[in-house]
Amino acid sequence: MSNWEPKIIAFLCNWCSYGAADLAGVSRMQYPPNFRVIRVPCTGRINPKFILSALRHGADGVWVSGCHPGDCHYIEGNLYARRKFALLKNLLEHTGIEPKRLHFSWISSAEATKFADVAREVIRTVKEAGPAQHFIKKQAEVA
Amino acid sequence: MQAYTERIREAAKRLLSDGKVDVVIGFRKGTIPFMNEPYLAKTAEQVDQLVWDGNCGVNLANYLPKRTDRVAVVAKGCDSRNIVEHIVENQIKREQLHILGAPCKGMIDKRRIKAELKGKEPTSVEETEGEIEIKGRDLKLTLNRSDFLQENCAICIHRNPVLYDDLVGDLVEEQKDVDRYADVRQVEAMSTEEKWRHFDDLIAGCIRCYACRNACPACYCPTCFVDESRPQWVGKTIDPTDTRTFHFLRAYHLAGRCTDCGACERSCPVDIKMRQFTKKLEKDVKELFDYEAGINPEMRPALDFYRPDDPQAFIK
Predict the structure, then answer these.
(1) pLDDT tens-digit profile of B130-175?
(2) Which of B183, B243, B287, B306 is the best mutation test for A, with the most CBs of A within 10 A?
(3) Three-state secondary-structure class, residue B37
């Protein structure tokens, strides 16, 4: 598995981190292409089921990124999300998921540099964790 | 215990004949020892079936959501906390309820008793303040009550009801200096791989009967996530990943809502200790957000509330 590359699911908030990704792109910033972006209207929209679903489908890591506290387009969505993710992350780690697979960040739409930095950081740590072993639902093989 | 029974019957009779409530939810004797069943008494004649002893571990708050009539309910400490939860979550109105608070000294774990009986069949059980007397063929046993409590009762710190209209017994002394999270810390000390295996072994026997979900007073969604099919979040098989997903999400749905009443473990046909999931969440909610479920009807639930300075060390 020397040429193994991780697959990371990134849930990005439409109003900030998704814009930051766009800005990073038009600014020609370089970072590895290991994550698949799912655009969400707000981090508060992310149900823990989504994150489990990503892991069940074989994602090696999950990255959730939204607006800084106080900057939420919907005033307070990310503040509720913060509580949800704190508990979710702790419980996932408590039941045996490597901490290196779960990443959360606040990135505003102007912070393209931060976006590229965090992206590199996320990819690096997920790589360290190696291919996901747990929580993957084996799909039935269909001829 | 007999005193509780009499006071429950007396209160139930009074409430029903005065027309204050339409139904009294309590317990009646089950058909076998160590099993009482929930009972809804609707007339004064039915009231004489109500009983109280150490086998009333089923959480009666489970019978309240979406009721439209006026209800009297017998509530232990944990039941009353779940009733508070129901009020906070708009499942029932406080005005509909008449809560008969039953200060509780813990419920008996029938599995521990069964192990002690070594295969012998009990036919009659007498329970006093501190002892359980069990009789049967070739069987006469007196057990110390406090040694045979449910695990959650042994570490309970809310034995008295938090919300009640009448008490059916004197308030009991709350347990102090109990270590509620010894088992959680034990798991926390493990390595990631050990943790995974620990929980794999823990839920290995699960047959996905959903008894834990059905016994839980906080599980009242009209459509449970396990029944959702578009999209399907969790498969219906006993594939280890599906079982894990079920237990994980079931526990997560109880984040900041679980009162550790033990109804899930009590109902499990294969003795899974699923409280290990919910207790971790309970510990985190207490440590991170300083919140305990079902204590104060004026407070919003932990995940329906935020503070600007909530912990966020894990966020980049």
Answers:
(1) 889 999 888 888 999 889 999 999 999 999 999 999 999 999 999 9
(2) B306
(3) strand
Domain ranges of chain A: 8-129
Q: Which CATH number fits domain A8-129: 3.30.70, 3.30.750, 3.40.50, 3.30.160?
A: 3.40.50
Asked whether the beta carbons of residue B280 and residue A91 sit closer than 8 angstroms, the reply is yes
Indicate the pTM of the whole model.
0.93
Distance CA B195, CA A58 (A): 20
Q: Quick one: which H or E segment has residue B80?
A: helix B77-88
Per the CB < 8 Å rule, is B303 touching A134? Answer: no
Find how far residue B135's CA is from the centre of its chain: 28
Interatomic CA distance for residues B149 and B54, integer angstroms = 9
Predicted complex ipTM:
0.93
Q: Per the CB < 8 Å rule, is B281 touching A134?
A: no
Domain that holds residue B190: 179-316
pLDDT digits (tens, 9 = 90+) for B128-142: 888 899 998 888 889
Residue recorded with tokens 């489990």: A52
